[in-house]
Amino acid sequence: MRVVIIGAVACGTKTACRLKRLRPDAEIVLIDKDEFISYGGCGMPYYLTEDVSHIDELRRTIFYVLRDEKFFQEIKGITTLTKTLAEEIDRKKKVVKVRYLESGKMEEIPYDKLVIATGSVPKIPPIPGVNLDGVFTLSNLHDAIKIKERLVSKKVERPLVIGAGFIGLEVVEAFGESWELPVTLLEYFPQVLPRFIDPFISRIIENHLKTKGVNVVLNARIKEIVGENGKVKGVRTENGFYPADLVLLATGVKPNTELAKKAGLFVSPNTEGIVVNERMQTSDPDIYAGGDCVEIKHLITGKGVVMPMGSLANRQGRVIATNIAGGKATFKGTVGAFILKCFDMAIGGCGLSLEIALSEGFKDATYALNIQHERAHFFSTGYSYYSLVFDKRTTKVLGFQTVGPFTDGTLARVHAISSILPSTPTIEEISSLELPYSPPFNTALDPIHVTSFIAENIIYERFKPIAWDEIIERLKKKDDKMLIIDVRNPNEVKDITQKYPNWINIPYQEARRKIKDLPRDKDLVVVCSVGARAYEAARWLINEGFKNVYVALGGIILPKSWGVEF
Amino acid sequence: MRVVIIGAVACGTKTACRLKRLRPDAEIVLIDKDEFISYGGCGMPYYLTEDVSHIDELRRTIFYVLRDEKFFQEIKGITTLTKTLAEEIDRKKKVVKVRYLESGKMEEIPYDKLVIATGSVPKIPPIPGVNLDGVFTLSNLHDAIKIKERLVSKKVERPLVIGAGFIGLEVVEAFGESWELPVTLLEYFPQVLPRFIDPFISRIIENHLKTKGVNVVLNARIKEIVGENGKVKGVRTENGFYPADLVLLATGVKPNTELAKKAGLFVSPNTEGIVVNERMQTSDPDIYAGGDCVEIKHLITGKGVVMPMGSLANRQGRVIATNIAGGKATFKGTVGAFILKCFDMAIGGCGLSLEIALSEGFKDATYALNIQHERAHFFSTGYSYYSLVFDKRTTKVLGFQTVGPFTDGTLARVHAISSILPSTPTIEEISSLELPYSPPFNTALDPIHVTSFIAENIIYERFKPIAWDEIIERLKKKDDKMLIIDVRNPNEVKDITQKYPNWINIPYQEARRKIKDLPRDKDLVVVCSVGARAYEAARWLINEGFKNVYVALGGIILPKSWGVEF
Questions:
Q1: In this structure, which of A238, A500, B269, B524 has its CB flanked by the most CB atoms within 10 Å?
Q2: Is A342 within 8 Å of A307 (Cβ atoms)?
Q3: Which chain B residue is nearest to residue A412, measuring alpha carbons?
Q4: Domain Rhodanese, which positions (chains A, B) (predicted)?
């Protein structure tokens, strides 16, 4: 059996190596247009931060062998053709036409089974100046090397990143933290991590970026990347000019499917990804595809999506290898689990954000927000924020987002939720999860439990949530229909009640006795630090017959974490 | 509705508070024989380590209010009777007979619904000397206070802990690390954490304890705790005498069910726990029970177990409150998830250990072991160890164990596995889990995936595993039927091949070419650092027609982590 694999970064090399282990007799040809193959692409931002001291660290096995052409050829026994471009697939003849880029020579390579793992290409925004010297993407090791060279040779004083997605945020940290450079971040959408994270969480990240000295510019409508003598000088938006001597385009990627299209394979018009079945076969059963170039099923919406994640590419490569070797393996789809480090924060999630859930037709989608220390207070590293997005009617969980201090605590919570999310659990199933407990790691009821309890209380309408955006808006308008009942201790409240006439302090300890006399014609908004005491006081108010009782979702810690000052 | 709750630590107070929030009109009476109620019992070891500076830190809410009788009485509106012993339940009259311990006065308290949350009592070994001055258990705050007083007043020079379970290991750390005392740990079984952790993992912990200066004595058959003038002087076992001026009995707990038995409620003869249904009702539907005193269903064996864990007690309290309030909530059972810190290590797991799985009748139970850095090597904190216990015939997962550096990485993996374990996943379902990935947190294929891949390779018999115990035994016997093929780099192997004639080095890079000439009549045992290269080389050997090819499970890092020197 002769298997040709086009693309040798994540999915392609995983397929090749696993297949060789399963079927040592198989003849495998691995083709890549680049000289760098089988590298840890997700580690590139850490080459910029200098956590990775040499680019080869991203190319080595854990036992320090460089994964180059020779490694695959000699150690793995896989015919490996680097600097070789696959130009065409002739499905009738079952050959791949390749061009050896150094010699220019062409050759036809026959296959019994073919694997397309051509990855993705960066989306370049349609603006002038993208080809100026000093404008980069970070889509392969060459990019990483070039950017690092500029940093090392002190040629960068004012870096600018366009796009506040995963890569954008990781690179902003590299520039800001490791190189101590004043970095500007331009984002088209009104928030960082659009689509993945909802605004009530993303503002926490924005504020963190600002405290780290990053110039965060949202709603940035870029007109032009401005140059002088061919070199980048800055970026002009509808509202201003941002000087820069290095611009990183982190505006996303799209599937690299030219070859597949030309071969007549079915490519999704919606996502531009190659269509594959659960066994990762394309519309031609002898041709498999995996990694960033394919469309996969989103397990919450049921729709096709492109999800360019290294972890998925590796798992897909394994599935392809098993199937080519004669086994039966499937890749069912994705819940879009992600995690990233951004300065001192860990950010993670899975499933749908509230915004996407609503836009995907989940009209009863809402969310519960929990703020707490992720572990016992005597081991605490500070506040973490957890949000479960769910359908209030069916009580099904739709998504989960969390930010917190840079520990593995965030990983732990996303690991748990993303593990069960494909089975579309209800909120009750989340609150019934068995999770281990010990004070150095978490709380007796894990943050996941507490978040699901808040969701349950929303589902059963035990309290009416109110968003801080609305509270702040009504405060600004001096809306005297609203009365804020702040149940924190007097020393926590400080002078806030003097500043706002419709903000009164009734300490939690006294609230049960004192609430009876509150006005019955107002919207009573109960607030505390994180929401627990407010919820309890709200229950007392409801028991006393008060009708319009609201609990601020997240407590006052939430707007404070956005940078709001009262 | 009048609800009486006996026991006010974890389950009891959770029931009371939640019920009051759901039904503010309910009349709730909370009874406890102690003055200390509603405290974080799992935090007691950290009071001994001094992470918790004052005992009241274990009694406070997150917003610094002491959870004492007054707090429950005045703030929560719950009638709270401390220092009050529930002596008898008259189910016909529906009253609880209580004795006020200070006055000696008796009273009958009527109930509509009753909750038994009487917790557990320490198991005291049947040996002489347990009542000597200086012999303690750590079952409540009084114990913690007394032990801490001795430590603070420098009365402890040689502490000794009996029992290497969760509490035992946590307290050993407190004595050894925080107080820098030479501590002895005696354990009846031939390993630490018996039943929960299998020996190939527990030996890693034992070696860690030894490197921290702990005198670990396994297989300890204790004859007597020896005293002089009423004070403890040491512990005598069948094999020796261990001097000690403080002895902690950490020999487990048993359900406190005297009251329930006397009331004629059904108590399991096997586990001694009160029998409850999924709604946490006892054999009397008006009486609920929860926490350490009940028997719950083990979700892997289907059998009743007693699982004294604070996290379960809290969740059960919530279920009881919901049901009493008229809702429908269930507690389905447990997979026994646990986590603990022990010096610089995090230890966690869920489900069954291999030993227990075999003893519970899973005759095809076996395990896969994975050793790897839990995150990208440029963020590494060192090796972690992961073991999946599974049924080789059904491929169902039975349990999971892990030890690693003290990060939340261990929590993350147990969170993921324990979340899905109740649905009795197959190994393939574990290898298909979607888990988020980023280099600061994990590897592209998470350690969970890699462990499940090893399990798959065992299921499909892609390699024959061999345990290090057997290898070491055969090395000792100079068994020349065995030939060890060490595929590490020559600099990793050092002089080991000179020491053992049947241990040869064929570096991985050269192995494909050189293996052909190996003897065909021997048991070839392929080893490397962690097992990955050995597995691949074994596949090459099998492809060359070699029959008796074995891969050392875990690589040479495993016995080294046990303290074995080659």
A1: B524
A2: no
A3: B412
A4: 478-562
Structure-token pair, residue B120: 């557990």
Domain ranges of chain B: 2-120+254-324, 135-251, 338-459, 464-561
How far, in Å, CA of A26 to CA of A558, rounded?
A: 57
How far is the alpha carbon of A431 from chain B, nearest alpha carbon, in Å?
A: 8
**DSSP per position, A406-441:** SSTHHHHHHHHHHHHGGG--BHHHHHT------TTT
- Which residues on A lie below 8 Å from B442 (Cβ)? 411
Gap from A93 CA to chain B (nearest CA, Å): 31
User: Is pLDDT at A502 greater than 90 in this prediction?
Assistant: yes
Residue A563: both structure tokens together: 């940078």
Please indicate whether the domains covering A135-251 and A338-459 agree at the CATH topology level.
yes
**B152-B154-B155-B157 Cα dihedral, nearest 10 degrees:** 120
How many beta-carbon pairs below 8 A join chains A and B?
270
DSSP state of B132: S
The ipTM value here is 0.97
Partners of residue A409 in chain B, C-beta under 8 Å: 408, 411
Active site (annotated) includes residue B42: yes
Half-sphere exposure of A151 (CA within 13 A, CB side): 26
Q: Which residue of A has its CA nearest to B440?
A: A341
- DSSP β-ladder status, B106-110 and B95-100: antiparallel
* Mutation choice for B interface testing from A380, A428, A441 by most B CBs within 10 A: A441
For residue A451, the SS3 value is helix
Instruction: List the beta bridge partners of residue A190.
Output: none
What value does the mean pLDDT of chain B take?
96
Query: Which CATH superfamily hosts domain A135-251?
Result: FAD/NAD(P)-binding domain (3.50.50.60)
Instruction: Name every chain A residue with its beta carbon within 8 A of the beta carbon of B21.
Output: 462, 535-536, 539
Q: List the catalytic residue out of A11, A42, A342, A350.
A: A42
Assigned superfamily of A338-459: FAD/NAD(P)-binding domain (3.50.50.60)
Across the range B284-301, mean pLDDT stands at: 98
- Where do we find the tokens 């490519």? A267
Q: What percent of chain B has pLDDT over 70?
A: 100
Pairwise CB contact (< 8 Å): B350 & A441: no
How many CB atoms sit inside 10 A of residue A68's CB? 18
Residue for token digits 């009996």? B162
Kindly determine whether residue A312 and residue B434, on different chains, have CB atoms separated by under 8 Å.
yes
- List pLDDT tens digits, range A300-343: 999 999 999 999 999 999 999 999 999 999 999 999 999 999 99
- B444 vs A489: CB contact, 8 Å cut-off? no
Six token digits for residue B418 = 């324990």
> How many whole angstroms separate alpha carbon B425 and alpha carbon A530?
37
- The fold for domain A464-561 equals Oxidized Rhodanese; domain 1 (3.40.250)
Largest distance between two CA atoms of chain B: 89
- pLDDT one-digit tens code per residue, B144-185: 999 999 999 999 999 999 999 999 999 999 999 999 999 999
Nearest to A62 among B377, B379, B540 (CB): B377
- Using a CB-CB distance cutoff of 8 angstroms, which residues of chain A are in contact with residue B50? none
- Residue B65 CA to residue B52 CA, distance in Å, equals 16
Other Cβ atoms less than 10 A from the Cβ of A395: the count is 18
Chain A partners of B421 at a C-beta cutoff of 8 Å? 434
Do A436 and B350 make contact, defined as CB atoms within 8 angstroms?
yes
The residue-averaged pLDDT of A178-201 equals: 97
CB atoms within 10 A of CB A301: 17
Give 3-state DSSP helix, strand, coil % of chain A, rounded to 5.
30, 25, 40
User: Of B42, B14, B40, B39, which is closest to residue B28 (Cα–Cα)?
Assistant: B14
Which residue, among A183, A187, A215, has the nearest Cα to A199 in the 3D structure?
Answer: A187
Q: Which two tokens stand for residue A546?
A: 């008060």
Distance, CA of A479 to CA of A565 (rounded, Å) = 19
